[in-house]
C-alpha cells in the first residue's frame, strides 16, 4: 500500500504561498475500529496546501468507492463516498505553539520533514463520512426471518401474513382433513 505524500519543501519557505495537489492511489481496504472495509476503486485526493505563515493548511476532498455489507440482507454493495479534508500541519516544534481561538488545542498534524503524509487524515475523513446505516438500497426488504430467503430477489414460500385467529382455527381443520384424505 502506498502513501499519499505531498512534497512541501518549497512551500515551507514561502509564507502566503499555495500549492495544488491531486493524486490517486490504490488502497485495498480502510481500517476501522470494527474491521477492514474493502476499497474497490482508487482513492482520489485533491485540493490545496496553503502556507499561512504559522502552519500548512490542507483543504481538499477525497473520493473513492467502498464495498459495504448491507445490514438487512447481508449482500455486499458498492458505496461511492466523498469526504472533505481540512487539516493543519506543522513541524514538531511549531505544532506545540499553535493554539486554537479559545485556547482549545487544535489538532495539528506533524510534518514528515519536507512531506505531508495525507494518509492518516484521509482515513479519518472516510471513516467520519461512513453512513450510519448500511443499506444496499433505500428500501431493502432484507431476509425472511423464517427461511433466510433474500426478499429483494423474490418472495419466499413462507406465509408471513398476519393471521386472523378465527381463520387460523379453520386452517387447522382444513389441514387435518387434508391429512386424513
Ligand atoms: Zn440489502
Ligand atoms: Zn421465508
Would you give an account of this structure?
This protein has 181 residues and is of the alpha+beta class. The chain folds into 2 domains: 5-128, no CATH class; 141-181, no CATH class. Helix content is 20%, strand content 35%. The chain contains 4 helices and 9 strands. The strands form 3 sheets. It has a 5-stranded mixed beta sheet. A two-stranded antiparallel sheet has the order 1-9. Strand 3 (29-32) and strand 4 form a beta hairpin. It is rod-shaped. The chain starts with a strand and ends with a helix. The model has no long low-confidence stretch (mean pLDDT 87).
Topology record:
Elements: E1 5-7, H1 9-12, E2 18-25, E3 29-32, E4 35-38, E5 43-51, E6 56-69, E7 76-90, H2 92-97, E8 108-110, E9 115-117, H3 119-128, H4 165-180
Parallel strand pairs: 7-8
Antiparallel strand pairs: 1-9, 2-5, 3-4, 5-6, 6-7
Task: Give a summary of the structure in a few sentences.
By secondary structure, the protein is an alpha+beta fold. It has four helices and nine strands, in the order βαββββββαββαα. One zinc ion binds at residues 70, 72-73, 75, 135-136, 140.
Q: What is the straight-line distance between the termini?
A: 69 Å
Question: Cα-atom Rg, whole angstroms?
Answer: 27 Å
Structural class: alpha+beta
Strand residue percentage? 25-35%
String of helices and strands:
EHEEEEEEHEEHH
Hetero groups bound? zinc ion
Shape: rod-shaped
The neighbouring-strand order within the major sheet is 2-5-6-7-8
DSSP helical segment count: 4
What is the count of structural domains? 2
Q: Which consecutive residue ranges, at least 5 long each, have pLDDT under 50? A: none
Largest sheet: number of strands, sense, barrel closure: 5 strands, mixed
Helical proportion?
Answer: 10-25%
**Count of individual beta strands:** 9
Mean pLDDT: 87
Amino acid at each position: 500500500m502506498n502513501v499519499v505524500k505531498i512534497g512541501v519543501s518549497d512551500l515551507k519557505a514561502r509564507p502566503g504561498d499555495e500549492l495544488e495537489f491531486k493524486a490517486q492511489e490504490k488502497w485495498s481496504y480502510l481500517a476501522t475500529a470494527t474491521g477492514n472495509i474493502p476499497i474497490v476503486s482508487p482513492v482520489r485526493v485533491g485540493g490545496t496546501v496553503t502556507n499561512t505563515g504559522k502552519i500548512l493548511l490542507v483543504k481538499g476532498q477525497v473520493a473513492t468507492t467502498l464495498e459495504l455489507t448491507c445490514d438487512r440482507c447481508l449482500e455486499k454493495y458498492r458505496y461511492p463516498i466523498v469526504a472533505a479534508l481540512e487539516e493543519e500541519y506543522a513541524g514538531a516544534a511549531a505544532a506545540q505553539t499553535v493554539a486554537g481561538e479559545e485556547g482549545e488545542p487544535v489538532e495539528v498534524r506533524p510534518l514528515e520533514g519536507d512531506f505531508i503524509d495525507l494518509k492518516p487524515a484521509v482515513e479519518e475523513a472516510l471513516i467520519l463520512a461512513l453512513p450510519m446505516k448500511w443499506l444496499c438500497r433505500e428500501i431493502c426488504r432484507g431476509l425472511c426471518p423464517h427461511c433466510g430467503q433474500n426478499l429483494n430477489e423474490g418472495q419466499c414460500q413462507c406465509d408471513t401474513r398476519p393471521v386472523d385467529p378465527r381463520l387460523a382455527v379453520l386452517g387447522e381443520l382444513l389441514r387435518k382433513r387434508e391429512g386424513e384424505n
